[in-house]
Amino acid sequence: MRLSTILTTLTAVLFTPSALPHPTSSSLSTALQNASNTTIGPENGHLVIVGGNLQNPLIYQKIITLAGGPNASIIVIPTAGGDPTYDQSFPAAATLRSLGATNVTVLHTYDPSVADTDEFVAPLLSASGIFFGGGRQWRLVDAYAGTKAEAAFQSVLDRGGVLSGSSAGASIMGSFLARGDTANNQIMVGDHTVGFGYLKNAAIDQHVLVRNRHFDLFDILKVEPGLLGIGIDEDTALVVAGNDAEVIGSTYALFYDGGFWSREELSELKNLPPPEARFYFLKAGDRYDLGQRKVVVSATLSGGGDEF
Ligand SMILES: *[C@@H]1O[C@H](CO)[C@@H](O)[C@H](O)[C@H]1NC(C)=O
Ligand SMILES: *[C@@H]1O[C@H](CO)[C@@H](O)[C@H](O)[C@H]1NC(C)=O
Ligand SMILES: *[C@@H]1O[C@H](CO)[C@@H](O)[C@H](O)[C@H]1NC(C)=O
Ligand SMILES: *[C@@H]1O[C@H](CO)[C@@H](O)[C@H](O)[C@H]1NC(C)=O
């Protein structure tokens, strides 16, 4: 159940005096607990969600490792890119090979009737890793949504494999498809709004700092306030297992959860904007609980040292 639905239901229950049977206090508290810790990450397997311009070999290595090592079968899907044709030399595939992956296959079609055939899906059935390249995220939807290929992507995750992607390949992982408009890449709530949903109740934006996109997710959160907004900068990734997300790579991931966190002491003295206008940054090594929508604070998070 979506958070907004739960809250609407709760509001209706709390403020409708006698028409409805009174909920027991335990069912109310369960709903409240559900609302605050709904699982939104995958039950099995991992996601590596990269904010575009992937260069850092450590992120590629992470994908290879989570797929099961150099001999794992990794499928690269270049379809978001929009080129007329693709061959096995697609750059992300070449980079994975140069970093030791021995069995990398580029798989592509724009035609959903092809994506729905057993022949097309066959290589996915023995794969333990997928990498979705960049471009326009709606092309992935038009080619694969509702097909056997989409089901096979999910099955890689269900078997404990890794689904990864950069730029468009990051946004496609959200249940809400950010920047999904076919006209241009600036419309946040476009003519395609449903992603593959490996992260539920979430919208994922990319290239966020390099392109000064940090206010853009509010276009989505204004119309879908129950969503968790996640913005990822270039060459930076979120590695997700269950509800645990860890930042790796060069810069920052931004979280739009209505809250605020700082590694700085006395940050309660800050004059923040209202909750619906807030975001904050996490860096490599920082961890976030996607269910609780909170930073996982550990000893290594505190800091600033003696620099003021
Ligand atoms: C809470 O979530 C559980 C598991 O998804 C579901 O079975 C239950 O009905 C939910 N309870 C309420 C009160 O929403
Ligand atoms: C939510 O968290 C509470 C407290 O940590 C826990 O008791 C409850 O089982 C959790 N609910 C779900 C649906 O995970
Ligand atoms: C990968 O496969 C090759 C050839 O079959 C084999 O020699 C090698 O030991 C394998 N590497 C790993 C890490 O399993
Ligand atoms: C390489 O991956 C393909 C596609 O998943 C698979 O069919 C094939 O068996 C794999 N080859 C090896 C040597 O593991």
CATH class, named: Alpha Beta
Total helix count? 10
The geometry reads as globular
Largest sheet: 9 strands, mixed
Strand order of the largest sheet: 3-2-4-5-1-9-10-13-14
Order of helices and strands: HHEHEHEHHEHHEHEEHEEEEEEE
Unique ligands: 2-acetamido-2-deoxy-beta-D-glucopyranose
Q: Specify the CATH architecture.
A: 3-Layer(aba) Sandwich
Q: Whole-Å distance between the termini?
A: 45 Å
Backbone CA Rg: 20 Å
What number is the mean pLDDT?
90
Pfam family, one: Peptidase_S51
Keywords: Hydrolase, Protease, Serine protease, Signal
Family: Belongs to the peptidase S51 family.
GO molecular function, one term: serine-type peptidase activity
Short note summarizing the structure:
With 308 residues, the chain is α/β, with parallel strands linked by helices. The chain is built from ten helices and 14 strands.
What is this structure's SSE topology?
Elements: H1 3-15, H2 25-37, E1 46-50, H3 57-67, E2 73-77, H4 91-98, E3 103-106, H5 112-115, H6 118-125, E4 129-132, H7 137-144, H8 148-158, E5 162-166, H9 168-171, E6 174-176, E7 199-206, H10 217-223, E8 228-232, E9 236-241, E10 244-249, E11 252-256, E12 280-283, E13 287-289, E14 294-296
Parallel strand pairs: 1-5, 2-3, 2-4, 4-5, 6-7, 7-8
Antiparallel strand pairs: 1-9, 8-11, 9-10, 10-13, 11-12, 13-14
Bound molecules: 2-acetamido-2-deoxy-beta-D-glucopyranose (4 copies).
